[in-house]
């Protein structure tokens, strides 16, 4: 074993231990929910939970199909099984490292290396977030319309819906504007590297950063020159959102409750909006608070809103985190 191999082995062990610690912190932070979850299981319809497990894994398979479609635009052919494993690993990293999805984007580049350049791998994940946000904008009027037709809509729902839509649009426009201004982004990167070099004299990653930006824009220009082909990744993003909403709706059915589909859609979407903007600092609590709060605001009894949120969220974690951690270890550098 060479010195380089020894160092990689050492760092792999360090990251593996960090992954175990992060998973332990997640379990500890959710300990009250887990205890409530086991109590609530006594009243649930088990066959519905079985369906939820299958549907949840189907959502990760859809993520893999999204990755495959957009990587095809970049002319890369990666096996669907590897992409499925990458989807689970990326979800694990995003949950245990609250950076609003940036950590997951970085780890996906490790999963796809060395076949796919890191810049294009990161762009692949960032586009997943962007297309999912667009899918949310499409689904939000559907949820609002279903609530409105059932006479459950109030001024609060209208204000929150319009406000959330405006927030997503403004954020998306800022990101798109920043990426499109390639020259300005490169100047900013150069300025940032000079500033870092002044503080850390041994910083020597300038060439790697420039190479990363070059790779990123190779993928970006490939997407902008194949706009019609981007409809396929967007379609998979829509399917993913629909599957997730359906999984959440199954939770109500597990309690024997037939809920307004519009309320289910809005609760799921607002939970994701809350976790996106709150996830920079916290991976636990923001999603649950957004989901339960929306349900209560739309007229769902507090006890049912809490129970459905706990069962959905804990089951989601139980299904995704263990295999996610397994594949996280598999693709550590």
Count of alpha/pi helices: 13
For the terminal residues, how far apart are their CA atoms? Answer: 16 Å
- Backbone shape: globular
Low-confidence stretches: 1-9
The SSE order reads HHHHHHHHHHHHH
Q: What profile does the largest beta sheet have?
A: none
Written account of the structure:
The protein is an all-alpha fold. The protein has one domain (3-153, 226-330). It has 13 helices and no strands. The chain has helices at residues 3-29, 31-40, 46-73, 80-96, 102-112, 118-149, 155-180, 182-199, 206-224, 231-254, 261-278, 286-297, 302-330. Helix 3 runs antiparallel to helix 10, helix 6 packs across helix 9 and helix 11 packs antiparallel against helix 12 (286-297). The chain is globular.
Chain-wise SSE layout:
Blueprint: H1 3-29, H2 31-40, H3 46-73, H4 80-96, H5 102-112, H6 118-149, H7 155-180, H8 182-199, H9 206-224, H10 231-254, H11 261-278, H12 286-297, H13 302-330
For this entry, give a set of tags:
mainly alpha; 13 helices; disordered N terminus; 333 residues
What is the gist of this entry?
The protein is mostly helical.
